[in-house]
Amino acid sequence: MTGRPPAPEPLPHPVVDNHCHLDVVRDDDALPVAEAIAAAAAVGVTRIVQIGCDLPSARWAVEAATTYDALVAGVALHPNDAPRLPDLDAAMAEIERLAGAHDKVRAVGETGLDFFRTGEDGRAVQVEAFRRHIDLAKRLDKTLVIHDRDAHDAVLDVIDEEGAPERWVMHCFSGDAEFARRCLDRGAHLSFAGTVTFKNAQPLRDALAITPLDRVLVETDAPYLTPTPYRGRTNASYLVPLTMRAMAEVRGAGLGELCAAVETNTDVAFGGAW
Ligand SMILES: [Zn+2]
Ligand SMILES: [Zn+2]
Fold first, then answer.
1. CA 208 – CA 192 distance, rounded (Å)
2. Please, what's the b/e burial string for 216-241 (b: 16 or more CB within 10 A of its CB; e: otherwise)?
3. How confident is the model at residue 2 (pLDDT cuts 50, 70, 90)?
4. What's the rounded Cα separation, in Å, for the pair 209 and 250?
5. Which of 88, 120, 205, 261 is 20–30 Å from 228 (CA)?
6. Is a pLDDT exceeding 90 seen at residue 184?
7. Fold for domain 15-269?
8. pLDDT tens digits, residue range 53-83?
9. Using CA of residue 11, residue 216, residue 118, residue 108, what is the dihedral sign?
10. Ligand 1 centroid vs 89 CA: distance in angstroms?
11. How many angstroms separate the CA atoms of 179 and 190, rounded?
C-alpha cells in the first residue's frame, strides 16, 4: 500500500503526540514540517514532542522546538547509535549542552536498550550510555524518554540501579500487563503507539487496560508504526485519532474523557504545558 492516508475524523478534545521524528523523511509521503504540524492540529493533535536520536537530529530537534510553538524537544543518543560512536564522551557532552540550551528542550531521550537491533557486542556501551542519560535527566530536571525493545528486564534493572528520575516515559510501550505494573510501580508514564491497534497485540491492549487513567500517553513514533488500517504506510501525527479511538475502545472510556486525560498527563510528564 502506498499513498498518504486520509485525515481521520477530528478528536473531540486536543491531545499531544509525545514522540515523533519530524526530521525523518522515509519516502515521498512525508509532509514538510509546517504542513505536518498543521495537519495534526486540524484533527486535534495540537502539540508534538520532537525526539532527536543522534547529534544531527538532536540539534535539529532543538532548532525546531525554538521555531514552532507546537513543539518541544527531546535530545539523546539512541541505543542503536550509541555503540557506533567513535567518542561517547564527546557526544554526551554535546547532548548535555543541547539539553540545557533552551527551556523548550523538555526531555532526555530517546535512550534505553535495544536488544533487537544491537547484538551482544554493543550491549555494554548501550548500558553505559543509558546510565549517563539517566544521570543527565536527573541533573537537568528533564523527562527521561526510554526506548525498550526486547529488553524489558534489563531496562528496569538499570532504572533500579540508578534510581528513576522524577518524570519518565516508556515510549512505544511494548510489554504485557505484568510488565506495565512493574513500570507503573516505579512511577513511569506509559506511552502507547499505533502498535496498540495491531491485530496480534492483545497483551499490549491488556497492558493499556490496566494502566491508571493518569499514566496513559499517546504517540506516533512517526514516520514508523502507522496504526491500522494503514499499517506499513508512512505515519504522521495527524493519524493519532486512529490510535486514540482504539485506545478508548480498549478502556471502555469516552473518547473526549480519554483525550482530556492524555493531554493533562503529557503536560505532567513533560514538566508543564507549552
Ligand atoms: Zn524508540
Ligand atoms: Zn522514536
1. 8
2. bbbbbbbbbbbbeebeebbbbbbbbb
3. confident
4. 6
5. 261
6. yes
7. TIM Barrel (3.20.20)
8. 999 999 999 999 999 999 999 999 999 999 9
9. positive
10. 22
11. 11
Work out the number of other CB atoms within 10 angstroms of the CB of residue 81: 18
Alpha-carbon distance of 147 to 264, in angstroms, equals: 22
Ligand sitting nearest the alpha carbon of 155:
1
Residue 265 pLDDT = 98
Q: List residues, by chain if needed, whose CB lies under 5 Å from ion ligand 1.
A: 110, 147
The Cα 152–Cα 175 span in angstroms is 7
For the cut 80, the answer to whether the pLDDT of residue 177 exceeds it is yes
Ligand of minimum distance to the alpha carbon of 147: 1
Kindly identify the ligand whose nearest atom is closest to the C-alpha of 51.
2
Instruction: Give the distance (Å) from ligand 2 centre to CA of residue 10.
Output: 24
Distance CA 220, CA 143 (A): 18
Q: What is the C-alpha to C-alpha distance for residues 167 and 270, in angstroms, rounded to an integer?
A: 7
Contacts of 139 (CB under 8 A, 6+ apart): none
Strand (E) positions, the chain? 15-20, 45-51, 71-75, 105-114, 143-149, 168-171, 189-192, 216-218
Question: Model pTM?
Answer: 0.97
